[in-house]
Specification:
alpha+beta; Jelly Rolls; 8 helices; globular
């Protein structure tokens, strides 16, 4: 697995330049300074969020529990303030919040950090917060709605591995869903040989970094410190991406949920078999091509 691809970092980019050089060609980029002119730059901290959202009951995910679906609800509920008290400790914690709509519970927060001008579109109001405790990972996946993502880190450091959709056949994607069964923390190349043939980016986000992830890009995230980020979304480019978005959110998602409910163990084993077989098949094709090149 080659993680040496260099991602470009820019500051003070105009909307026209962003669209021309990154959005239209679907090229990842780290943008600095998007929060500088917003109230969130100076206001947002864990105490400030607790002040505004403290009593809100939130659905918390426990990474120690395995879940085989994509769109899921939390494993248990707790007050937001208690959740923050847990994740801000400087110790490993498996808890995280996924797609938390904090703006719905406190409009003032949306005013603090509205959708950046370079990312404006019909999904302006779809800003979601993501929180996680130290050492918590978010399994490798691409977003089910195939949106373009602008992921802005506010508190804590986060590691992100990013891979182009062109590597989907090598990344152990399960059928009817958008996640990989490969362990990206400690990749086992004997178990997941397809990973040997993929190239990607390995970046660390800190306060104020905004990562643009194009539609369909695979991403694995690891909270190096307890922290949180906000993601805004923009509709995918092209008919194929939007077709897959509709299919993912309707037939594929609900068929997957139905099978998880009816025959969970069988369905889990079936999806893993398909993921392995497809990746091994494509790995073999690559090896055969290499051998032919050597003999020429």
């Amino acid at each position: 697995m080659d993680l040496s691809l260099k991602i470009q970092t820019v500051e003070d980019i105009s909307k026209s330049d962003f669209i021309t050089y990154f959005f239209n060609p679907q090229k990842p980029v780290i943008i600095k300074g998007l929060i500088d002119s917003t109230p969130a730059a100076s206001k947002w901290s864990f105490p400030y969020l607790k002040q505004n959202l403290g009593s809100t009951m939130v659905g918390v995910f426990n990474n120690q529990l395995k879940n085989n679906s994509a769109y899921t609800f939390g494993d248990f509920k707790m007050p937001f303030s208690e959740f923050i008290d847990t994740i801000e400790k400087d110790e490993p914690c498996p808890y995280r919040l996924f797609l938390f709509n904090g703006f719905k519970h406190c409009q003032k927060l949306r005013n603090d950090f509205p959708c950046p001008a370079i990312f404006k579109g019909i999904l302006d109001n779809m800003g979601f917060m993501f929180f996680g405790g130290k050492s918590t990972g978010v399994r490798m996946h691409f977003d089910i709605d195939m949106s373009n993502l602008l992921h802005t880190q506010f508190i804590g450091k986060k590691r992100v591995l990013l891979f182009s959709p062109e590597y989907s056949s090598l990344l152990y994607k399960v059928p009817f869903n958008t996640y990989s069964i490969a362990d990206m923390d400690n990749p086992d190349f004997s178990r997941f040989p397809g990973l040997r043939y993929v190239s990607g980016y390995d970046v660390t986000l800190t306060h104020g970094d905004s990562l643009f992830m194009p539609s369909g890009y695979w991403h694995y995230m690891k909270y190096l410190e307890g922290g949180f980020a906000v993601t805004y979304r923009k509709i995918g480019v092209g008919i194929e991406f939007n077709y897959n978005a509709v299919m993912n959110l309707t037939l594929r998602l609900w068929f997957d949920k139905l099978m998880n409910y009816i025959r969970p163990d069988y369905w889990k084993r079936y999806k893993e078999r398909v993921a392995y077989s497809k990746s091994i098949e494509n790995s073999t094709k690559i090896e055969n091509c290499k051998r032919k090149m050597v003999t020429l």
